[in-house]
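Posting this for the archive.
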Amino acid sequence: MGLIKKIYKMNSFFFQIILACLAIAILVLYLKPAFADIGKIQDAISQYKEEQQKVNEVNVKLTGLVNRANTISAEDQTRLLTYMPDKVDTISITRDIFNISVQAGVYIADVDYKDSENKDTDLSEVTSDSTSEPVTHKFAVGLSGGYAEIKEFLSLIEQSNYPLEVHSLEVTGSAEGVLTAKMDIVTYSHM
């Protein structure tokens, strides 16, 4: 009987060691990867909540801007689109420059449209904190006439329906009293 008790005690000790090793193996092989997966899922949930918060902030700002835009009267919206259109019709502006020259009594030698200076602006680069700059459109104008007529032309340009600005002006005179003016006229659009 003594021998059986000794074998039983030895088997019990080895059995306990085997069970402890098995428990450690289960922890290492099953639970550790499960905890790693849980950690990844928690990180993804955290990132999702952050992105959702950013989207909510943009939506709140957009709602505020839409509400602000809705408070603008239809008449003011029409005037704004006339004054600062989404796109510039270069033919209409060229025609208006010719009409202004006729009204002022000056002779237009040429009107050349130069490509928009910042037409390659990527709209995806515009952030919520920045304001997008308007696109500038430049017209090179050459004209001739008397001093009073050129002065009237510049006055009428200033009073036009567009934000026409004279960015450069070079005036030369002749012996007959006729002035020749070369100028760059710039206007703007949203896109």
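Helices lie at 2-70, 74-83, 90-104, 147-158. The longest strand covers residues 135-145.
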